[in-house]
Every structure is written in C-alpha cells, then in structure tokens.
Fold this protein.
Amino acid sequence: MKTTFTLLLSGMVLGLNPAMAAEDHAQHGHGMAQDQRVVLALTPPERAMLLEEMRGFLSGVQVITRALGKQDMQTVAVAARGMGQKMVHDVPPALRAKLPPEFRQLGFSVHGDFDQLAMDAESMKDVSYSLSQLSAIQQKCVACHGVYQIQPQMGINGSH
C-alpha cells in the first residue's frame, strides 16, 4: 500500500494525474481486484465528521468554480478561506490521533492551499491562476481518495 501512496504522491509532485498513476500501477500486474486502499477505521460519529468535511470541500469547490466562471474573486476568496486552516481546529484531538501521519499531512496541506487560494484571489484577481491552484488542490483530493477509505470501526463482537 505504501507503494501506491508513494506513486500517487510522486505523480502529484511531478504534475501527473494521480488516478492515471494508480490505473497504470494496476495494469502492470499489481492488480486492484479488491479495494487496496488503506482503511481508516473510525467510530460512526468520527466517520460522519470526516465525511461531512469532505462534502463541505465538494460544496466549496462548486462555489469556487461558479464564482470563477463569473470572475467573482471576492466569492472565491470567501469560499476558499472557509476551507482553510480554520477548519483544522474543528477536528477533535482523539480523531486527529487516529489518522495516519501522511493523511494528516495531506489534509493540512489542502487546508493551507485553500488559504493561499483565498489570499491570491483577493490580491491577484487572476481567474486563470486561481483555477490552476484549485486544480492542484483537487489533485491532492484525488490522491487521498485513491489511497484511503473510511470504514466503521468494528466493535468487540464484530459489530459497527
């Protein structure tokens, strides 16, 4: 699994499509017949919190893309800032401790990237530049979803 994660992150650094890197990895004899992603075993409330954050990202990205289409850079900045580092403070320490260091690092990076997008949208007011920043952020989302899956934590008797 570390190999797949490394491939995806290497692809991101090199500007390659992480999904294509994973597909290429699967086609060359390292098959992905089963879901080979790292399991994040979380309690139902922790899982719900993390999934809610991801849905918030998706909604925020939609607001940003709509605003970019209208060249409304103030809305881009407000939406991006809402997904920045201030969201990190909402994650309970117990949940944060359960998450792998690579997952946390990628998450912090995404939040920081949204803060940078907000600042640049306000100062530069360059739709094309903001769109390229958003694309880079989404590459990290794709890479993360290619490496991790969230499953309910099993109880002592095997129940969720």
In short: The helical segments are 2-13, 18-27, 44-69, 73-82, 93-98, 101-124, 127-147.
